[in-house]
Structure formats: structure tokens, C-alpha cells
Design brief:
37% of the residues lie in helices and 10% in strands. It is flat. The two termini are 22 Å apart. A two-stranded antiparallel ribbon has the order 1-2. Strands 3-4 form a two-stranded antiparallel ribbon. It has a domain of 51 residues. The relative contact order is 0.24. With 97 residues, it is an alpha+beta fold.
């Protein structure tokens, strides 16, 4: 169990929104066409819908918890709950702060 605060981190709505937008924008052009993600406006509407489904309304501020990276520094992987990371606790730092 890590006691330095470097374990589990909160992923804020803004961080998740940014990651989703970037993830969709870097898809291959034919994949974006197949999904109907042609314009930035469409991508933003899809991401807003995904955020609502994942995190709820903005005023509720539900959280997505992501385990820290685990493994050797040259080939990090996302940790696994109960294996690499203990059960989350309420006073976790935000990943983007």
C-alpha cells in the first residue's frame, strides 16, 4: 500500500472530457467516417453524451477512479484493484492537480 499519495487518483470531468475528445480525434479518418464523427461539433456532442452516461450530471460530479501505473518504469501498465492498489479511500488527490 502506497502512503505517499501516489496511489489511486481521481479523474476529473475535464480530464476525462479531454482524453475522450483527443481519443476520438486521432482515430483513422475512415473510422471517424464510419462512426459519423466528421466534425468537431459532432465529436463534442458525442463526448458530452458519454460524460453524462459515465459520470452523471455535472452537478453530481461522480468520479472515475483509475489505478496508478504499475510495473517497471520503462513499460508501465495500469494497475489492478486489489492487486496493485488497495481499495480507494475518500481523500484521494485529483490526477490533473
Amino acid at each position: 500500500m502506497r502512503r505517499d499519495g501516489g496511489g489511486v487518483k481521481r479523474v476529473s470531468r475535464e480530464t476525462l472530457r479531454m482524453r475522450l475528445i483527443i481519443g476520438l480525434q486521432v482515430r483513422k479518418p475512415y473510422e471517424r467516417r464510419e462512426l459519423g464523427l466528421i466534425t468537431v461539433d459532432v465529436i463534442e456532442r458525442v463526448v458530452d453524451d458519454m460524460l453524462m452516461r459515465i459520470m452523471g450530471r455535472p452537478e453530481s460530479e461522480a468520479l472515475i477512479l483509475q489505478p496508478s501505473a504499475a510495473g517497471p518504469p520503462l513499460s508501465p501498465r495500469i494497475g489492478v484493484w486489489g492487486v496493485d492498489e488497495p481499495h480507494p479511500f475518500p481523500d484521494m488527490p485529483f490526477a490533473d492537480h
